[in-house]
TrEMBL record:
GO terms for cellular component: ribosome. Transmembrane segments: none annotated. This is Ribosomal protein S18 acetylase RimI. The keyword Transmembrane helix does not apply. SUPFAM superfamilies: Acyl-CoA N-acyltransferases (Nat).
Length: 140
């Protein structure tokens, strides 16, 4: 597997991946208004890494480097549970200069379990337009 920085040629593939991953994993939400272009908004100002496996773009992570904040970690539905999320998270965690942070939707129990297994800790919870979330930290 290759993890590399985002290039503009990745955009159409990652748009599709982002939409498909949200529909597959956030099944409790109404996806009727979601669009391919939603991807464009979530990467503004972010450092983005792309996972490539067997010639396919299979996942990405987007981070606000100045804040040590992981905003996005998405894996294509057919490629989940193959270590791709762990590889992307390994890359992201190397960039943290202090405590890493992320928010994970509380209803996304698979993602919460993944982050907890990786050593992240719940520090608080809150509400967003998508529902309740857990704020998590990773000590550097």
């Amino acid at each position: 597997m290759e993890i590399r920085r985002y290039i503009e040629e990745d955009r159409p593939f990652l748009r599709t991946l982002y939409l498909a991953s949200r529909k597959a994993n956030w099944h409790w939400l109404n996806a009727s208004a979601w669009q391919l272009e939603d991807f464009d908004q979530i990467i503004i100002g972010e450092r983005v890494w792309v996972a490539i496996e067997q010639g396919y773009r299979v996942g990405f992570a987007a981070v606000s480097v100045n804040d040590n904040f992981l905003h996005s970690l998405y894996i294509a539905p057919g490629w989940q549970r193959r270590g791709i999320g762990s590889a992307l998270l390994d890359e992201v965690e190397t960039t943290f200069t202090s405590i890493g942070a992320l928010k994970c939707l509380s209803a996304n129990t698979a993602a919460l379990a993944f982050y907890l297994q990786r050593g992240w800790h719940r520090v608080s919870s809150g509400e967003s337009e998508l529902g309740s979330y857990e704020l998590m930290h990773l000590r550097k």
